Amino acid sequence: MTSTFAARHPTVAGTAAAEAVRSATGGRETLLVTNPADGSEVGRVPIAGSEEVDAAVATAHAALPTWRRTDPAERGRLLREAASAVADAAERLADLQHRETGRPLAEALAGARAGAGTLAQYAELGPLHRGRSLLGGWDATDLMTPEPYGVVVALTPWNDPVAIACGLVGAAVVTGNTAIHKPSEKCPHTGLLLNELICEVLPRGVLVSLCGDGLVGAQLAGHPGVQLVAHVGSTATGRSIAESASRTGAKALLENGGNDPLLVDEGVDPRWAAEQAAVGAFTNAGQICTSVERIYVHRRLADEFVEALAAQARRRVREPARPEEIEMGPLVDVGQRERVHAHVADAVRSGARVLVGGEVPEGPGAHYPATVLTDCVPGMTVLREETFGPVAPVRVVDDFAQGLAEAAEDRYGLAATVLTPSMAHAQLAWRELPVGTVKVNAVFGGAPGGAAQPRGASGTGYGYGPELLDEMTRTKVVHMGLPRTGSR
């Protein structure tokens, strides 16, 4: 991938005004994207300036009146076309994501196809999104009707860039909003290609694409012409967005960091539990919002569980050579690896033991091994903060009640998993854990359409499912009485 890709994918898509601005500010700063597997250059993209941010918002505003009046069925039809375009380009999107973020190609392809499916889902759900009639007087009509917010900004992450962007952008435009999408600066080429595919289908200005770093995102989040900011990413950035939105009056829709616990109860098969823990902690090198970040295991099966978990960690390798080995890609960049290793080193200084991994490998790229830590105790950074890497810290507890209490004592509130043979414990856990999603006897999975609300430092609002359409609209109450005519 060379810099010619950036030349074919301008920073602001679909606006002649922005083209003029870009020509007048030639030679500005660019983003260099490197492959985290080997450090090779993927490409460069230009960083949008403040003038281009203004131009993007102006373009989205100009397209809004016509788009919000477009028949909902027509909006759905166009989104179905966009879904087909994304599906056809899934392998191209996956290849770009693989090179920009290091995500294994098969996982990246699954994410791209999930994104196409999400667009198709909202293409069907959007035209069915409805208001509500109210029971008023006989001589009046009363109703509640959803209306689009206006200009929606979608700030999306690098760990699942296609699927998440398709959800936010799809729900926004199908409900009559126009959208500005800024993909993560760690995978701008993936985001630019996705936006190009969708922009080719939608009318000009309905989706506007911007590239840049955190400063560009901050300018968008605090722009007075933006009515809603949807962000998936770090808690620190989410807080900043919420503060900006409070000043401009925009709505903030946030899914931020998580520190998801896994409870392993007495009575479950320890080897099965270790398989579940490994999938939760090591998939995508632990770089999933709902990755397993901390493990509480009952003392009676701790030894067998830890031994099996260590064996699972050893199976995760950089370049699989045997059928039993599982590919694990690098972390997204060296900076992320440094943060992950700092958590491991802090745990070791505080008394934890490294059973597997825990060392920065030699050579290029941002690889980090699947790591299992034992003898972990409350207060360690690796248990208190989101590590976002392939690290499985194990805390041994005396009983389920202790594990549940410690798992619940956390400032985040994204998700949690419970492995238990006890229906009583399962019921207690899903009711007591202060998180948006509880999974019993499976670290991943669930029926389509689930839409949880993160809590605490993990954010606010629905980020998925049919309820995301509610987040992208606001309700207006209408009372229509009969007019009086003639003289009294």
From TrEMBL:
Entry's Gene Ontology molecular function annotations: oxidoreductase activity, acting on the aldehyde or oxo group of donors, NAD or NADP as acceptor
Every Aldehyde dehydrogenase domain range: 29-478
Transmembrane spans: none
Key words, A-Z: Oxidoreductase
Annotated InterPro entries: Ald_DH/histidinol_DH (IPR016161), Ald_DH_C (IPR016163), Ald_DH_N (IPR016162), Aldehyde_DH_dom (IPR015590)
Annotated coiled-coil segments of the chain: none
Protein name (Swiss-Prot/TrEMBL): Acyl-CoA reductase
Source organism per UniProt: Streptoalloteichus hindustanus
